[in-house]
Amino acid sequence: MDISLKNVEYSPRNSQETMCFYAEIFIDGKPAMTARNDGRGGMSFHDPHPKNPQFYAEAEKMLLDWGKTLPPMKAAGREFPYDDLDMISTKLVSDHLAAKELTKMIRSKVVMVEAGQVFTLKPVAGRSPSDAAVLEAAKRSYPNATILNSLPFDEAVKQYIAAGEGA
Rounded to two decimals, what is the model's pTM? Predict the structure, then answer.
């Protein structure tokens, strides 16, 4: 099952107790639902996608089943399963934002993960962070680090998110 987001709007300025966002959720390319949260600490709202309202009930079940396959979120020394649409949609938006952030970082820096921490190196002026010599120098300097620039993007995002979650 391929889950994707479109038309994601995120407002850190309006995110008080929860993330303030709006997103359209697609499953296998089909519009499934919209998700939104006003950022004031309440639950997220989910509505049928206006282009495919008859798919909502099936999409909800598919997302809840998918949530059961995820490792639980860890916070405050506890584990929380992804067992409701609120947690699932928030995770999807968080992961989307992390991928967007990583894309931006990789353009100008060598991004590495070591011991669950993300750190970056800015290459020498005039050199690209994707230059083989730059990546090799980073690997020599930090032999235990995983260089995200050299991984397939989906794998790099997974490792970046895991490091951000303290995994």
Answer: 0.88
